[in-house]
Design goal:
By secondary structure, the chain is of the alpha/beta class. Helices cover 48% and strands 16% of the residues. Strand 19 (505-508) and strand 20 form a beta hairpin.
Length: 930
């Protein structure tokens, strides 16, 4: 048995813990780790991966009496650090070893203690390791590192955090020598790539056979009771059926973890569940909530004070949050890796089955079916890494210059080249970054016979510590409805950067809104009914659906369409795809309904159809390929027609709002060329590119971390740094994360070769309608009638508090609600009706009036204000309370009020409509007034 290889003391501890038999990863991994090999262990959640790595390494440190810091345990999340400390302290304490955590929240006293008396094992994050590498004393302790364990490696590899970590580990190797490295992960789509990323000589240990997954797709059938409930809950019938089933599953299990794809869906599900059952104890967990609230939810769930948590990806990683017996995925998880990771949270323990149910419906069933089927067969998505991330490289070059004063460029080149993401870097590319940093006054360069010597400047220190993290610092915009004048929620900076132009429509808080203006950190909006061209505010949160999944959905559609007449089709689907009867019947019914009017689009057929001014291209090509082809199409069509084209895509459709014809789309697709060059031009002009450029400019030190996005002249900075490493990095990042050029070119080539057929048909099919509207059905509230909009606006105006000041005597000066103003108001002091309507904060207005009445000379500013007050009071004399109502509106002064009042409206609604229009005009032009 592998435990017999440990020291006697460790064997006793293992016995005390009750570890009778080693798990599969322990059997396979411990001998290799004990032998000092570099290993990547891939094993499901809950079967002892952490102990596989830690027991042999802790025992080695104990037996060899290794000097601290002997081991680094690196995790992507601070919460994982807390969890690990609790788990590992018992072992360390019993072996007289010190273990502690270091991250951004670590107190100064704890940091000082770690510096003076370092622990044998330090649990940390990549960002914190980046910081402590530069400290003289900490670097002395880090020279003793013999082992590095990286947990949840899959979470790091695909991001810039992984690139940063790979360079940090090479810097560490410079002064600690050739340490042993162990990577841990539950889900890896490209094991060899991850292994190469970690180290050159590394063994992959796949201990996956022991874990069983029971994953089902359920499509709850709406009942008569659901119909009544749906009206009460203000949600669709199918959504109600899913909600009712979710409640049943929570009630019938001990602890249920429910995952949704967006924060908005999580919040809506939770609010509707509360309305459905006030006694059902559950909580919401996502990244927008405070840390305290998230921790409380985790603790309450662990102690079983809560039956369920409804979470986004915030609870995907391996934090132990209790004995979960079921994971529910609400609608498709969009990727197989995500599903495996999430379902793995249930049955957290050796020999336990991880049970998961995808609650699906409508068109979503196809995708959920494919993902569940691939999950059962362990077909995971391949990993994409950030090769050549130049902003990360720039920061780490400064790190190397801090580590070693007077460092040679040749030495930097060899260190950088050892890191997997920079394995192909050329000397010229590195030289360009060094020269750029020198031009930024971060480095002083000195040419010598042995090469270029680099010395860091004082400015370099500030830049380095400002950019310890590769995670962008973002802030939220407050969304304010112009109707009620109240905030309705917050939008992420990324969404506003990409879609925040005046006139754009988006779905948020269950309704469609149109942007009037971005005013500082506020987005001023009005409600609209135009759902088709609205963009979901949660779009940025959605995980992209891979090309392969979307293609498999096309294969499934084709299979149903081809075997349509087969009476045994339901059983065929159940056997081939493992779905229940109801899901099979729903898919067949949807294909049947579509086939009655149109050709069924699949992996080998594109369907182009139209509705109003929309052209819908049905293409089973996934999120990134469709986004790439869609942007290419809209660029060409805009150039041809001279009119901008609105575009919306999902994994199965490209939707264009345009004056062009369907035949034009077919022609452009069949004759596509210069795709990358056209997309580069299109992307460079986009607000999304500008937003990303500013983040990368911060990471290069071009722009201060503290600079506010809206106060920066982005266009000027972009012009100054065009063709710089920062500009190149922005393009590389956008093309990697938002586009799939290679996939798009492959698809367009297949169209050219007629391997993919394009079919043009008229009208709007079922699948076309789904694309335009159905993606919002989960979170949409009933449309607000126009009358209700004006009633809400009227209520807001009447409850607005204004200052009423008598311009005749200057003595009457009162703040009151508009609704409390008399029909024909007059001054109680002098009986005059010359009453000016002013904002509440016009505190010194009465002094100006009294100065004028005393015939004293007014200055230019006072004269201007007096004229405005006089005009305002003249309107009150003529129109009474009506004038007060108009001037209570935001940005409506006497001049605009006079124009509105002169219209002599016959209907109240028309009167308020014109006031609202004036408010919107002010909000739209306010930025220019400034």
């Amino acid at each position: 048995m592998v435990f017999e290889k440990f020291s006697e003391r460790m064997q006793k501890l293992i016995e005390k813990k009750g570890f009778l038999e080693p798990t599969l990863p322990q059997k396979m991994g411990i001998p290799k780790i004990s032998a000092g090999k570099n290993v990547l262990i891939i094993a499901p959640t809950g079967i002892g991966k952490t102990e596989t790595a830690m027991l042999p390494l802790i025992d080695k440190i104990f037996v060899n009496q290794s000097k601290p810091i002997a081991m680094l345990y690196i995790t992507p999340l601070r919460s994982l650090n807390r969890d690990l400390l609790d788990r590992l302290c018992w072992w360390a304490d019993n072996l007289d070893l010190d273990i502690s955590v270091r991250h951004g929240d670590t107190s100064q006293s704890e940091r000082n203690a770690q510096r003076e008396m370092p622990p044998h094992i330090l649990i940390t994050t990549p960002e914190t390791l980046n910081a402590i590498l530069t400290g003289k004393k900490m670097r002395e302790h880090l020279k003793n590192v013999k082992h590095v364990v990286i947990d949840e490696i899959h979470e790091l590899v695909e991001s810039k955090r992984g690139v940063q970590l790979s360079l940090i580990l090479e810097r560490l190797r410079e002064f600690s020598g050739n340490y042993q490295i162990v990577g841990l992960s539950a889900t890896v789509g490209s094991p060899q790539l991850v292994a190469d990323f970690l180290a050159k000589n590394i063994e992959i240990i796949r201990a996956e056979t022991e874990k069983e997954y029971d994953i089902k797709v359920e499509t709850p059938k709406p009942s008569a009771k659901d119909r009544a409930l749906s009206e009460d809950l203000f949600i669709g019938l199918e959504t109600t059926a899913r909600l009712r089933r979710l409640r049943e599953l929570i009630e019938n299990h001990k602890s249920v973890l429910t995952f949704t794809n967006t924060r908005e869906t999580a919040e809506v599900l939770s609010s509707r569940l509360r309305k459905l059952d006030k006694e059902l104890k559950h909580a919401v967990h996502h990244g927008s909530l405070s840390k305290e609230r998230r921790i409380k939810s985790e603790q309450d769930f662990k102690s079983q004070a809560l039956k369920s948590i409804i979470a986004t990806s915030s609870l995907e990683l391996g934090i132990d949050i209790g004995s979960i017996d079921l994971v529910v995925q609400y609608l498709s998880p969009r990727q197989v890796t995500r599903l495996i990771q999430r379902v793995g949270r249930a049955g957290h323990g050796v020999g336990r089955v991880s049970k998961g149910i995808i609650l699906s419906g409508d068109e979503d069933i196809f995708e959920s079916t494919i993902i569940a089927s691939n999950a059962r067969e362990k077909k995971l998505e391949e990993i994409k890494i950030h090769d050549h991330a130049l902003d990360v490289l720039a920061n780490q070059i400064i790190g190397l210059a801090i580590d070693e004063y007077d460092i040679l460029d040749e030495k930097i080149y060899h260190i950088v080249k050892r890191a997997y993401p920079f394995r192909n870097i050329k000397k010229d590319e590195l030289k360009e970054i060094i020269q750029f940093l020198s031009a930024m006054r971060m480095l002083w360069l000195d040419e010598s016979p042995s090469g270029i010597r680099l010395r860091r400047s004082k400015k370099a220190w500030q830049y380095y510590f400002d950019n310890l993290s590769t995670i962008p610092d973002t802030f939220s915009y407050r969304v304010v409805s112009i109707i009620e004048g109240e905030p309705i929620g917050n939008l992420d900076e990324a969404f506003v950067a990409e879609h925040g132009q005046s006139g754009n429509k988006f779905v948020f808080s269950g309704r469609a809104w149109k942007i009037i203006q971005i005013d500082g950190n506020k987005v001023i909006v009005e409600p609209v009914e135009d759902m088709e061209s609205a963009i979901p505010a949660w779009e940025g949160e959605l995980i992209p659906v891979p090309f392969k999944i979307a293609q498999d959905v096309g294969v499934l559609r084709r299979f149903i369409s081809k075997n349509f007449e087969d009476k045994n089709l339901v059983n065929l689907l159940k056997v081939r795809y493992g779905v229940d009867s109801n899901s099979a019947n729903e898919m067949i019914a949807l294909v049947k309904s579509h086939k009655e009017t149109n050709t069924v689009p699949d992996d080998k057929k594109f369907l182009i159809e139209n509705y109003k001014d929309f052209i819908i291209i049905h293409s089973c090509c996934g999120s990134l390929v469709n986004a790439t082809v869609g942007r290419y199409l809209s660029s060409i069509m805009t150039a041809e027609t001279g009119v901008s084209v609105n575009m919306k895509t999902d994994p199965y459709r490209i939707m264009l709002q345009t004056t062009a014809k369907k035949e034009d789309v077919k022609r452009i697709l069949e004759n596509a060329k210069n795709i990358e060059a056209i997309l580069k031009l299109s992307i460079e002009r986009s607000s999304m590119f500008k937003w990303r450029f500013m983040h990368i400019a911060r990471r290069f030190g071009i722009v201060s971390k503290r600079a506010k996005y809206e106060k920066i002249n982005t266009n000027k900075i972009m012009m100054m740094y065009e063709n710089s490493p920062a500009y190149k990095e922005t393009l590389r990042e956008v093309f990697l994360e938002k586009m799939d050029i290679e996939g798009a070119q492959d698809v367009l080539e297949k169209i050219k070769n007629e391997e993919i057929k394009i079919i043009i048909e008229s009208g709007l099919s079922i699948l076309g309608k789904n694309g335009l509207v159905q993606q919002f059905s989960e979170v949409m509230k009933p449309l607000m009638p126009e009358k209700e909009i004006f009633n809400a606006f009227r209520r807001r105006l009447l409850s607005t508090r204004v200052r009423i000041l008598c311009t005749n005597c200057g003595e009457y000066n009162l703040i009151q609600s508009v609704r409390n103003v008399d029909k024909n108001p007059e001054c109680p002091k002098c009986a005059s009706r010359l009453l000016a309507v002013l904002p509440r904060n016009a505190l010194d207005a009465d002094k100006i009036v009294k100065k004028k009445l005393a015939k004293k000379l007014l200055n230019e500013e006072e004269t201007k204000r007096w004229v405005t007050m006089k005009r305002s009071s003249d309107l009150v004399v003529i129109y009474g309370r009506k004038a007060v109502i108009v001037m209570a509106a935001r940005g409506v002064g006497p001049q605009t009020a006079a124009r509105i009042l002169a219209m002599l409206h016959h209907k109240n609604e028309e009167f308020y409509k014109d006031i609202l229009k004036a408010e919107k005009d002010f909000a739209r032009t306010k930025v220019y007034w400034k």
